[in-house]
Amino acid sequence: MATPKEFVEKMYRNDPFSQWLGIKILQVEEGYCKVQMTVREEMTNGFDIAHGGISYSLADSALAFASGSYGKIAPGLNNQINYLKKVEAGDTLTAIGKVENLTRKTGVFNVEIFNQSDEKVAVMRGTVYRMDQDL
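-> structure tokens emitted (135 positions)
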């Protein structure tokens, strides 16, 4: 049987958006994934800060990989993000997704995003639907 890391690597290979973001997978365990990316100039908005969708997308990928580490397809049902600190071009963001609750059909995950100074810049809570279909 495949390992959690192998499941996540398979997901990443088939995920052009996470690849475009420049996400690097740093650590994977069952129900846990740590990823990192650097914010590029084209990811900023009219206020010269990162578009909110960038932090959201990083957190969503961390959540997807953490939930996918169990080897089942698990699309999102609901996500909520809170932005705590501005993010700018050149910032390196690290997102850590962890399972909080897992049932046969759903999972609740928390994701924290930190900048290169180890300051928490955003938090996300998401729920996934755990399908019977394997990755």
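The helical segments are 4-13, 16-21, 52-68.
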